What we know:
This protein is an alpha/beta fold. It has helices at about 5-10, 20-30, 35-50, 50-65, 90-100, 120-125, 135-145, 160-170, 175-190, 210-225, 250-260, 265-280, 290-300, 305-315, 350-365, 405-415; strands at about 80-85, 105-110, 150, 195-200, 230-240, 245, 335-340, 345-350, 375-380, 385-390, 395-400, 415-420, 430-434. Helix 10 (about 210-225) links the parallel strand 4 and strand 5. The protein starts with a helix and ends with a strand. The protein binds uracil.
Amino acid sequence: MHADRLIRKKRDGQLLDRAEIFEFVEHYTRGDIPDYQTSALLMAVFFRGLNARETADLTEAMMRSGQVIDLSDFPQPKVDKHSTGGVGDKTSLVIAPVAAAGGLLVPMISGRGLGHTGGTLDKLEAIPGFRTRLTLAEFRQALRRTGAALIGQTEQLAPAERKLYALRDVTATVESIPLISASIMSKKLAEGIDALVLDVKTGSGAFMKTPESARELATRMVEIGTACGKRVEALITGMSQPLGSAVGNTLEVIESIETLKGRGPQDLLDVSRELTARMFVLGGLDASLDAARTRFDQILSSGAALQKFAEIIEFQGGDPRVLEDYSRLPSAGHEESVVAWQEGYVAALEAEALGRASMRLGAGRERMDSVIDRAVGLVFEKKVGDAVNTGDRICTIYANERSFLPEVREAIRSATRIGADPVKPSALVLGHVP
Length: 434
Ligand code: URA
């Protein structure tokens, strides 16, 4: 195939036809088209966009690059959720166990960290032994045994998505509505689900910086899913500051476990409850959102979700003793505090800059072959709206490489604003589609 012809076509603003898109995805997945040509095409798409038909074709081509799972032999409603990515966004680790404990089947194909955002797979792999690469047979077995499986794309499941995702991560081609839509919906549609709840983030730490662009992305994804016969709903949620307190893989696993124990931060709990409640309603388990929210709270307070997380960890090869003993998780060699330099109220914690600071410590990838450090990251003691006195700790940096500390400390200080006047944090749920 002549990839240069496709690159030129898109560069010049022309439409790619269905056959061209399918041929490109097939050849790239097989390794016949090099990353440098694919990077150029992705950049052309980034600037020129794809229309609704091209996006649907790309989604389908990526979905069909592997198998589409048939879960019709499972009796439970099959419902998943997916986030468009944020900083400190660990809701999957809370939602999957609660949803499975509540009676849904949750076949969750997740991603790795992308740009400044974290990824569910990287977080789960902080748990010693946890395997996110299961065969299809193991995936089905996990679902049969625990009701949930959290895995990545494989050679069998949306392999094109896996390759393109990794390439976009390091070529500054993530923040594109058609590319994000195709990325998310191709792997979700390969999962064999009946219904899907999307968490479309907006704000400085999201790929969609404005509520308008988040709504456009949400609409595009809901349309693709609905056209494929799935029940799909999207919530638009705020990501102007990190979600919860922890940013970084191990630190986020600990915060998720604390949340399953009923001791998590309120914002994380609230977003997780809203998303899970929609999953329960779309799955037909509850007739109203209020009943579904109550179901979420009961599952959490009964300990059933924590027990479910232990089962999921164990089935996927991880050490469930981490739930009671955090010293079994990777730990960082150095801790350093960033303290308030004046009295007042925290007015902003710029999420993207903080995500990049965490990446700089080693929590995310700067190149496709970067090895991430699961132990490092940031934990915030203050969030937007909190009052601070001079010298109060705002954040603790967990690092292994001391030489990164001055740069990261400076990045956190410039991402933090302290003002004299009280500040009301913005709402977490900003809208929904449809
Ligand atoms: N999450 C995904 O799975 N893909 C994207 O492109 C962005 C967020």
